[in-house]
């Protein structure tokens, strides 16, 4: 598997799968203590990229047009289904549930 730091990645990309019209891939480069020169940790770098993905990417399954009519987006629905299936095949459902518990703990 190629090292993410050695890969040539475009700086931006447009997609119909997620809500963001353009994804700025430069935001996925670890910064601060996630990229500390004396403490290079691949686990921290992966964590940083995962949290940035969760913060920046949205799967709009249903949106309303200006008249209030709902519209289902099939591309994000398909992507969300593929992601769910990948989690199930990798048998990492418990990890995702633990992560969700951490992310919503402050939901008052």
Notable characteristics:
alpha+beta; 3 helices; 4 strands
Number of helices: 3
Poorly predicted runs: none
Total individual domains = 1
Count all strands and give the number: 4
> What is the helix/strand order?
EEHEEHH
Strand content: 5-15%
Mean pLDDT: 78
Largest sheet, strands/sense/barrel: 2 strands, antiparallel
Shape estimate:
extended
Strand order of the main beta sheet, please? 1-2
Calculate Rg over CA atoms.
17 Å
Q: Helicity level, as a percent range?
A: 25-40%
Classification by helices and strands: alpha+beta
- The end-to-end span amounts to 41 Å
Short account of what is shown:
With 108 residues, this protein is α+β, with helices and mostly antiparallel strands. The chain is built from three helices and four strands. The longest helix has 16 residues.
General description of the model:
- This protein has 108 residues and is an alpha+beta fold.
- The chain has one domain (10-103).
- It has helices at 42-56, 74-89, 93-103, and strands at 12-14, 22-24, 62-64, 70-72.
- A hairpin with a 7-residue loop joins strand 1 (12-14) and strand 2.
- The termini are far apart.
- The mean pLDDT is 78.
């Amino acid at each position: 598997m190629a090292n993410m730091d050695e890969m040539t990645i475009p700086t931006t990309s447009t997609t119909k799968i997620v809500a963001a019209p353009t994804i700025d891939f430069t935001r996925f480069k670890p910064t601060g203590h996630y990229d500390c020169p004396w403490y290079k940790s691949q686990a921290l770098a992966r964590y940083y990229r995962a949290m940035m993905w969760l913060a920046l990417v949205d799967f709009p399954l249903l949106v309303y047009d200006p008249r209030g009519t709902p519209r289902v987006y099939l591309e994000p629905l398909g992507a969300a289904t593929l992601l769910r299936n990948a989690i199930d095949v990798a048998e990492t459902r418990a990890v995702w549930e633990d992560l969700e518990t951490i992310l919503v703990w402050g939901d008052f």
